[in-house]
Amino acid sequence: MYSYICGKVVDKNLSCIVVENNGIGYELGVSENTSSMVNVGEYVKIYTYLYVREDTMALYGFARSEEKNIFMKLIEISGIGPKMALQILSGYDLKTLLMAIATGDVKTLAKIKGLGKKTAELLIVNLRESFSSDISLGTEAGGLVSDDVSDAVAALESLGISKVDAVKAVNEATKHVEGVENIIAYALKGLL
Fold it and tell me: Fewest CB within 10 angstroms: 10, 64, 105, 133, which?
């Protein structure tokens, strides 16, 4: 029903923001990632999703359309509602979350508050294929995960670095260098 709302942020906390548009304050449930991207007093464009059930009506907001798309995929999974989906989106930045799902990293996903091992496995089973085909590690425009990136992550893991730290280091390295050897060297510098 609502695709997005443009307006001024008049209030916020970790799980909610209020965006004023034409004298109406829209209260939006948000992830911690979205909350950290907006500030009170600034004008924003927030992508929205209206959740309607017979006993509930809630509006959810996202600073980026990619986050909204992931949210929509999460709530399609049986047993994951909007609040759990926001909790999952709050657990890690989008790149780390997508990489954990695409690589089947149950241990990383289970560290998200309120998400157990079984739910983490459910996420992986339902979303692994779709996320591994469209995961983006580069800029906002992003591209598909290259062999260099996945090889660099695997190499860092073989050195005893956790998958989460390896993914973060490789994400940062790909902003500055290309080629698997250069990515690994740059990532190692950042980790040491």
Answer: 133
